[in-house]
Fold these 2 entries.
Entry 1:
Amino acid sequence: MSSSNILLVGKPNSGKSLLFNQLTGMRQHVANYPGVTVEIKRGRCNEFNVLDMPGTYSLKGMSKDEYVAIDEISRAMSDENTRLVVCVLDATRLERSLVMGLQVQKLALQHDKTLLFALNFIDELTRIGESIDVNALSVALGSPVLGISARTLEGIHEFKTAMLGIAANPSSSKIDELAISDKSVIEQSKNLNKRFGLQKDVILRDQNRIDSFMLNSWFGGLAFIAVMFVLFQSIFTLATPLMDGVENGIGFVAQLVTHYLPKGIVSDFLSDAIFAGLGSFLVFVPQIMVLTLIIGILEDSGYLARAALMCHRPLSFFGLSGRSFIPYLSGHACAIPAIMAARTIESPHKRLITMLTIPLMSCSARLPVYALLIAVLVPANQSFLGIFNLQGAAFFALYFMGIVMALLVSQLLNRFLPKDFEQTDMPFILELPTYRLPHWKPLFQRVINSAKQFIVKAAPIIFWVSVAIWVLGYFPLNSTLENSWLSVIGQFFEPIFTPMGLDWRYGIAILVSFLAREVFVGALGTMFNMDNAEDDVAGLANRVQADGLTLGAGLGLVLFYVVALQCVATVAIIKGETGSSRLAWGVYIAYALLAYAIAVLVNTLF
């Protein structure tokens, strides 16, 4: 009995995953788009395993992801351990739900499985004074139907009791074959909706009234800009105190641990390799959590689908999807959560292009590098066109260049990447879900899970790179960084950096910044005999200017950091999301070569 399974199936936006959470107590999440993931969420409900199957609109797939999802559902149906199939229907959109529901019912009948329909969102029907005769609908379908609200828990206890009872004795509720019609599922769903569904679609009318504003060319565009501005600012403003807390917390623990150790190699290793390495990627966790929270609110409320619709046409010109805009936007805070956000893209081909070009967005880790080099190259207190601060204009130009480069590379990848992910390029089909308030408990658990996933995926590779860089910079013993093995490597590679107009000191700073881009400032400060260079960018800028960095070399260097993928955490997350080490390192090498070519060209021209 312990291995017996209950399958949970349904179309996206039907509340299937929320019902799974309520039944099992697990706060798992599957995004509201078909093809986002084919993972099967598992949980326990009493003595049964509950399997949350991938959401799909139909058992007749159109993309590779949907084919995989359908195969998983069919395979689970044929499993002898499957005791019951639960199909979730949306009471507010009965006709669309029944298309999938009737197909699942016929598949269950073929495999001699018992089916139970969960009619979700009955609370929304009550709110507008409507109802559905679930008993009559049950007779018409030939399978039991129970009305529930996974959001308010209305009917959940009765549903759970009935579900467990049927799963324990499936023969008690076999599908009534006499109720199965020979008509197409489209025609059946229309007829059933006429008999039982909402005839006066108040919910749809209210939704259309809101959409007339939110999707309007002018007002909708302004609303979109406002929402994106709040999203973008939230990633910085809400995450910054948390990031500072993480950084200070790791620093406090590091001091506490190393305080009781004698000065030497063990103390230095723990402080500079372990704790510094942990801090270099744990500091990103608050950004991931804030981003997941904001995107979750937009998704659960129904706005994310509408924003994707508005952005689809301009982005499709570059081979992208409308859903690419959220990862691109959040990539300006950090590429790591942005790449994870790309899971919402329906096409594997476009999802891959988006993930591979997100590193071109100017993330917050580039800010210290930009601030230093702009202070070196651009005179302070000078204006552009007599209005804009010249240094501020330079910042905008760097951000704008990153966006342009991402779009150009996207178009290039769209043309040359093999499209064997799908037989044809799928049309942009998007269901606009009903506007709803988020369900907060699963949303907060989703935030925690996103942080856990990031740590598990990124931690191993970052740890070993941190250790390697520390060893190279620490040995031989009792030497300075200028005399370390890392320095020897820097001088060995100096001929590579010479065409960029840079010497070995800049080469070392570039090499160590692979751990994290912002490390460049501290490493360069060490090369110029400055402690805490991160806190005195202006002083370091003065020393770099006095050292004679040329305009061409400085401009080429800052453009190098616009393009180069100098972030091991990003490489790790690309590997985790694509499952390919070759692809992840290939992206790193490709952007490094492109950045190098741009830097050499600029240094030559200037």
Note: The chain has a mean pLDDT of 80.
Entry 2:
Amino acid sequence: MNSIPMPLEAEVQRKSGASATTRILARPELIILLVAAGLLYMWGLSKNGMANEYYAATVRAMSSSWHNFIYGSFDMNGVMTVDKPPLAFWVQSLSVRIFGYSSWSILVPQALMGVATVGLTYNIVGRRFGRWPAFTAGAVLALTPMTVAISRHNNPDAMLILLSVAAVWFVVRGLEDGRTRWIIAAGAAVGAAFTTKMGAGLLVLPALFVAYLWAAPIPRKRAFGQLLIGGGVFIAVAAAWPVLMALTPAASRPWISGTTDNSIWSLITQYNGLGRLNGQMGGPGGGMGGGGGGVFGGSTGITRLFNSALGPQVSWLLGLALVGGGAIAFFSRLRPSNANTGWIIAIGGSFATIALAFSFASGIFHPYYSSQLAPFTAMLVGGGIGALTSKDAGEVSEATRRYWLAGGLVAGLISTLWVLQNASDDNLSAWQAPLALIVLGAAAAIVFGGMEPRIRDAALIAAVIALLVAPAIWSVQTLGHATSGTFPAGGSASASAGSGMGGPGGAGRGAGARGNFGGPPPGGGTGGGGGMFGGGGNTQLTAAIAYSNSHGGGTIGVESQMTASSSIAGSGAQVAGVGGFSGRESTVSISWLADAVADGRLTYFVTGGNIGGMGNDGRAGSTAAMDAVAKVCTAVTLDTATDTTANSSTTASGFYDCTGKAAELKALAA
């Protein structure tokens, strides 16, 4: 390992005028790392299709008009927004506008974000601890199964993670020279992260504030002033889109999905804010009848990160990360004068905030959220190894570092074995004994080898490689099947199906789960109605779309956006889900519904589906709106001559034409 660490000497290179390209070429390990990450994230990418059809539908709608683009419309006619802020979908929509609507144009930007995050992780560790600890950190991140899955998917988390890590990178740069520009950039990055996934984008903010205020290389009063400036930039960036939504008259923009009052502030503070942590209707603590599980990542508690849903995705080297981070904090004594203090507060504090939030979040929590923890785990692994093998450890004795390093490897072994037990992966069960033998042997060699560099480095390399075998296998297995559907996860097709929905015994995930979410079942076909987030049923909706097209067009309102997503993503059909994602999140007013009918945003409705088939969780969703439609609008019988299993033509009810019924709906609202 060449007597790790080997410093990046960033300041020397900057002053010498070396170009970025020259610096990268001087580090072949970085090139290998980025190329490997690119292959993992883009190999066979098209097999993922449109990945999450809900977001693919959003991107198709947003790329169809600038009005839809600006306001984050889920549907083609600007009836409802998507339930997230639009920044990640702006990037995908611009790609679609440039390259056309396809799997590659949607997913390649996501993969490139993943590669960029690996590069930033390398640099954050390398700036303090050297090249090989930096390479280790990058490799740990690149080979985290959930990182692979999320980088091959169109969920907004790839951008959230990139922006969170970028904010940390800016603060680390600021800790080196105390320049205001880095704090301004960090504020902008956190603001952009908020515009990507709202509350989740703020999780790094406390640690970055404390790190810079405590350890900036300038007087504390001046550092506080810089933080105020950075905070102002953060507020300006984070508030720009919400203020636009708040100032735009409700009749001139889509209804804000995920709310019952059409308020962007409700979306921020409730559905995408504190409700995720404190419990909300539809989450484990909000009407789901029990302590969580299923799609919500299992029961809350300190061991949640090791359960069958989250453990195999992100927690393999968590033990080594904890010991490594603890070593940096212990050795630095958190003294402001120690160069490692600000680094460990920023990275370790972000890790702790995210880990605690995810462990105890009692609202809606899906296992793929844990991807935000992965880069900070990787940084603590790489940084810990760098600190424990550095010749510049100050007053820390070799013996102390030797025991910390051996203890870190043993802790990494424990977390890996814990994950392997919960992963129930028969292909890796035989690996547990060799893994234990290699890591324990390496730890013994480090303890009794007198910290002689060649012995230590050989033992350390062997142990780290051994610890990375299992997550690497899971990461590579992710490439063998479609990482699609609502809940992406890494591993084999069967393993990711279980972890994506909360562990073994959960509902299916990925391509095989689409039939449960309003999209076509595996192998094509129109599917049936209902399902987990069902609505009017695809056969009925297909007939309704045909009827609308043959009668001059018009947008069809259905109960859930998931019911509408397949038709929008597949053909750009004029369909809108008026009840939000599952049909329960948005409660539109009858008055608003009447206005939407009056101005032509909605014309037809398909009712009678099984709204959000996750049980009676107390949310009304689209129920009142659809009841009003059934009372006032004209019923139309559809010919659904697509029932090939019965080889006969059938008819379906629950389809309504609301043309000319706006006044009656308005009267009903009164």
Note: Residues 220-247 form the longest helix (28 residues).
